[in-house]
Amino acid sequence: MPIVDDAFDFGRIASANAISDVYAMGGQPLLAIAILGWPVDKLPAVLAQRVLEGSRNIFATAGITLVGGHSIESDETIFGLAVTGIIDIKNLKNNNTAKAGDYLFLTKPLGMGILSTAQKRNVLKAEHLPVMINQLIQLNKIGETLGKIEGVTAMTDVTGFGILGHLIEMTEGSNLSAEIYYSQLPIAEGVKEYLAQRIIPDATYRNWNSYSAKTGFEKGVNVMEAFNLLPDPQTNGGLLFAVDESAVKEVQLLLKENKLENFTEPIGRMINASDKAIFVKNK
Questions:
Q1: DSSP labels, 226-275
Q2: 63 and 162 inside one domain
Q3: Rounded mean pLDDT of the chain?
Q4: Containing domain of residue 200, as a range?
Q5: Which CATH number do you get for residue 150?
Q6: Residues 98, 153: contact at Cβ < 8 Å?
Q7: Tens digit of pLDDT for each residue in 73-83?
Q8: The whole model's pTM is what?
Q9: Would you state the pLDDT for residue 144?
């Protein structure tokens, strides 16, 4: 469903979000089919065309094709896609194969749920709208190359469960725990300003209720801020991946080559299983 007002942007965001699932496993996307639900009695068909134009714009950037799909009348506006990709099976990345000692990296800032909620409440500042849109349409294309690096041991993308939920999936699937270096987390411009105004998605509370018992905090961490940020639901969020120590320099070089130089520092590390799935530290 739309999280922005502009139909063209809606198509771009939905498409980038769908393609991310292939990139998050190290794959190369090939093609996609779409389903469009449109309330024809509420919105003109020309806007539906703009959604499809936005979708094709992203597919052209990714080098793939929207080959068809299906449209229906619906009470609410919906747009979704099924993306087909390929990968050499030896390069396939799962989210449950990390190892103790692996470093954790994240390729996009957090806070998209907060910014999109600010827009829904009509308090998002004009200078923060492009910050949000530009991130929501950014392809996680680097995942295709990360899949070819043996030292990348596990990978996923951060979406509706927030970084906390997706990292817990990684720890529990790998029978490990993880440390998060809170001060190293990338946070989108403007996010803390809206946090101070208590502008938080409802899903944040649902996420936190599911994860709070599995999360521990080091003394000195801003727990109230972390409580609102770590479970923040993302749309087309960054890739979260674990890297063997021997491959860290190779990964950092790759990130710099792909204009992701702001994300070359680890945001945490996988550790042996403990009583908590996640330990949030100051570092």
A1: HHHHTT---SS--EEEEE-GGGHHHHHHHHHHTT-GGG-S--EEEEE--S
A2: no
A3: 96
A4: 94-281
A5: 3.90.650.10
A6: yes
A7: 999 999 999 99
A8: 0.95
A9: 97
Please state, in angstroms and rounded to a whole number, the distance separating the CA atoms of residues 4 and 132.
10
Q: What is the pLDDT of residue 183?
A: 94
77 lies in a domain?
yes
Residue with the two structure tokens 């003109």: 44
Per-residue CA distances from 108 to 47, 134, 188, 259 (Å): 29, 11, 8, 12
pLDDT at res. 283: 80
* 261 & 140 share domain: yes
For residues 142 and 149, what is the distance between their CA atoms, to the nearest angstrom?
11
Q: Could you say which of 89, 114, 143 is where a domain stops?
A: 89
Does residue 132 surpass a pLDDT of 90?
A: yes
Residues 52, 55, 60, 66: is their CA dihedral positive or negative? negative
